[in-house]
Design goal:
Elements (H helix, E strand, L loop, with lengths): L2 H23 L19 H10 L7 E5 L5 H10 L2 E6 L2 H13 L6 E5 L12 E4 L3 H11 L7 E5 L10 E6 L6 E8 L6
Parallel strand pairs: 1-2, 2-3, 4-5
Antiparallel strand pairs: 5-7, 6-7
The structure holds S-adenosylmethionine.
S-adenosylmethionine binds next to helix 3 and strand 2.
């Protein structure tokens, strides 16, 4: 094949991939639903690593991040452990940022991001659920978490599940903010106190 044809094919491939990515990001499925129940604050990366380790994430696991923010939890899990991920956020900006992050980190074959109110979801497919939400949101989620299959892991950042006995509690100082954070691990079926 001549050099000109080669350059043409490469350029066509770049144009195709750019259009494909732009189409994926300019999704028409993102809209205003309602005010989020909590504002976005990202879990520091050293805590994300620790949470994934506590949950013993492994290849093939399906991780659900409820209120996924910028998608960091699912992206790191996919990169480090080859796990699949589904991220849900109600905030259009967060959904867009997560999708951009997934594309930038080349984990689109493992991680999908959806706009949804987490309280409407069926969670029964999930193997691992990291949570960084307010205590009353965790309590409101309990009915859904009770439907997880046995052996699923839930790891909470800062606020645990009220009335449920954790399997492990870890307090650590993050190098990102020099503040103390507490992490709670639960395994299903949940153990009522
Ligand atoms: C504290 S941030 C945690 C972000 C991420 N999970 C992390 O740990 O880095 C909480 C996220 O929940 C989202 N959120 C709040 N209420 C929600 C709801 N009802 N359904 C879905 N997402 C919600 C917010 O938009 C925000 O991105």
């Amino acid at each position: 094949m001549g050099q000109n044809a080669n350059i043409f094919l490469r350029s066509a491939r770049v144009v195709f991939l750019t259009l494909w990515a732009a189409n994926a990001l300019a999704a028409d499925d993102i809209k205003w639903i309602r005010t989020p129940d909590v504002v976005y604050v990202g879990t520091p990366y050293d805590l994300v690593s620790k949470m994934l380790k506590m949950a013993q994430v492994k290849p093939g696991d399906l991780v659900y991040d409820l209120g996924c923010g910028d998608g960091r939890m699912l992206i790191l899990a996919a990169q480090k452990y080859g796990s699949r991920g589904k991220g849900y956020d109600i905030d259009p900006e967060r959904v867009k940022a997560s999708r951009e992050n997934v594309a930038r980190n080349n984990v689109g074959h493992l991680v999908e991001i959806f706009q949804a109110d987490i309280f409407t979801l069926d969670l029964s497919e999930a193997d691992v659920i990291p949570l960084y939400l307010l205590p009353e949101m965790n309590t409101k989620l309990l009915q859904q978490l009770d439907k997880l299959k046995p052996g699923s892991r839930i790891v909470c950042h800062q606020y645990g599940l009220e009335g449920i006995e954790p399997d492990e509690t870890v307090t650590m100082i993050s190098h990102e903010d020099n503040a103390s954070h507490t992490l709670y691990l639960y395994t299903t079926p949940l153990k009522r106190r």
